[in-house]
Amino acid sequence: MTTALSVREASKIFGGQVALDHVSIDVAPGEVRALVGQNGCGKSTLIKILAGFHEPEPGTEVTVDGQELSFSDPASSEAIGLRFVHQDLGLVGNLDVVDNLAIGQGYITGITKTIRWKQERAAAHEALMALGYDINVRMPVGGLAMSERTAVAIARAMSTRGAPSKMLILDEPTANLPGPEAERLYALVRRVADSGVAVLFVSHHFDEVFEMADSVTVLRDGKHVITRPVEGLTEDELIEHVVGRKLDEYDKEGHVRAHGDVVLELKDLSGAAVQGLDLTIHAGEVVGVAGITGSGREEVAALVFGGHGHGGEVVLGGDVLPQARPDISIERGMALVPAERHANASLMAQSLRENITIVDPGRHMSLGILRRRPEKADVTVWLERLDVRPSQSEFTMAQLSGGNQQKVVIARWLRQEPKVLVLDEPTQGVDVGAKADIHRMVDEAAAQGAGVLVLSTDHEELVRVCDRVIILRRGKAVDELSGPRLTNDNITAATIGRDSSEPAA
Amino acid sequence: MSEVQAAPRRRINLGFDRFSGLYVWAALIVLFALWIPDLFLQVSTLKQVLSFQAIATIVALGLIIPVAAGAFDLTIGGVVSVSVCFTAWALVNHHGVVVAVVGSILLGIAVGLLNSLVVVKFKVDSFIGTLGMSSILIAVAAMISSQSQIVLSTEGYGPFLDFARGEFLGLPYTVYYAAVIALFMWWILEYTPGGRYLYAVGGNPVAARLSGVRIGRVTMIAFVTSGAVAAFAGIALTATIGTATSIVGEGYLLPAFSAVFLGATQIRPGRVNVLGTLIAIFLLATGVSGLQLAGAPSYVTDLFNGLALIIAVSLAVRTARRRS
């Protein structure tokens, strides 16, 4: 049997840390292979060796269709027929499809170096038709559907002029795609494979693995665990290979602690990737939402709080919230600590005092004048309560470390004594000490009767702070973990599992 | 903890970061006092600087508000022109002082509302949106004045002209108008929630919105304020010079921006503010009138303003970078 890709004894050590440990894999022409494993398992390292970004340890050998790859030389990767599509696709949104395909490889030109647009357009159209996509090639790429953009990126990779394409390598190809678009892409990948090109794709999405791949390779801690055909493999077996141990048969009942009155209700909440989320939060309850990138998790906070318009209803303390009005959400007692505090929450050049009181600057106003002294005293209490260092109300936000900035943002909201506190990635880029403090503040807020919604990719964090965790996959709530079922492994397994609604392959 | 807290507030900062303008101003005064003592060290020089700058100061004070909210308002020059032409037109056509004054202010407010419609609703970048609008205003001013100069004679329009020319303690009324507006703007920006909202929108509109600030409304109020203030400056200018032409306001646009940006390097570095703007205006005016008294040609005004702005802001950027 011929092999398209043959990797022998691939190893890579980063500063004493073994990232990849004697991994050998073979992929046949026309085969679609999934490469799966947890973060840090060595998938990316392997891909980067193939792409010529990393130089592997001596003893590593890679051949493509019999030709040897010379390492850390992207040109060699390309010359022997390796083609890459990265997760961000690398397209220029405001240029049309023709331009995006021509970027990097040059336009077809005449003698006078004038671009032959007609020929260029025909070539672009043909390349996309070959993948099953009939797209208007004069559309700016930014205006295309997500799966169409992926198709353009794949077409660009495949149509590289020069050496023939032997192998297509994709990084999380359907991570950001809603269901139907993901299916279009499965068909596309199938077409590529049918033309005799081998496909290797990195994935966290198990439905992608079962729908698209012929075979799967699992890596764990830099080591090769297993390579086998997808046929006959069950989801549970695959999860066990990825996680490395047998999952406890979990209690399907679970249990929910009794809490106070309902403070927040989401009824058929929809928007962007989220497709009909129902959720009820009681006073004093901490509810988590977990889901991989593209599951809709990253949209939930904005939809609930009114950052974006939404479908369905958000009911806060009995009243339906209006569309896209954060000010009214706040007035009615909701608070949001958004993800990416630099972009979404910080007034970098302004004082901690101004950052904290921006929600209701008029609190210390009397006789038409904002009284700075009581305002400072008020703010200082909060800075000390959250152990912000330095706890100086007149320092600017830019003078603090990331963890302390996040505490200031949290102080802004705790000071409002919210009925509902929404936290989106509350400890992203925060050091361990600050993280523990923030978790303690979440406990306290709940103890004082706030309903808390935590959206996080940090599964340990969810286990630490939440009473129950909702699992989102492709925009839908597919599971809820609580009580003894609420473990790190269970969350991980549930987020990458297949949609339970889809029939087993 | 508490002793540490008090320290940075109480220390008097002699550094150049916050008060460099005051030092430069003092240096300029000393320089001219030594160079041309007979001409420069006169009460009339002080009077002249104050009254010459009163109207430019009013325009710049209005401009602070949208700039604090992160929006450019390039229509202020056009609003001054329209206001001047409308005021003069209303007076010579015997519509009375009330119509002239109230109508001008309403025109300024209308321009502010149109600006915010373009910037907030149509989401046009404020620089481009107000640039387009300013061109429209030049046309409007020309239409009102029928493209010719309107002259208001002292005999016919004495009471109106006194609105600006009247004097108190040897200074024209316009100086007092500027002082009152400066106090008002200072109060708004430093001591009201509105000021916090303006700076928050200017600092990070996304964060401001997610903190409950209605950024569209704040931007609208900012444009309306700068429009109304520029219109008021136009009325005062009409009374000061007693003539109206459709391009008279254009000369106020760049100095106002210079003063606001130069002012942002003073008192509260990195943030446009009233005191900084006032320092900037009088620093520039002192330099210019000193040079003119020393016999420099009239184009020195523009040369000096331009150089001062570029040098001051470059230095401020360097200090800010070194600090971070």
Automatic annotation (TrEMBL), chain B:
It is a multi-pass membrane protein. GO terms for molecular function: transmembrane transporter activity. The keyword Repeat does not apply. The keyword Transmembrane applies. The chain crosses the membrane at residues 20-37, 49-67, 74-92, 98-120, 127-150, 170-189, 218-241, 247-265, 272-291, 303-320. It holds the Pfam family BPD_transp_2. GO terms for cellular component: plasma membrane. InterPro entries: ABC_transp_permease. It is found in: Cell membrane. Keywords: Cell inner membrane, Cell membrane, Membrane, Transmembrane, Transmembrane helix, Transport. Its main location: membrane. This is Unannotated protein. It comes from freshwater metagenome.
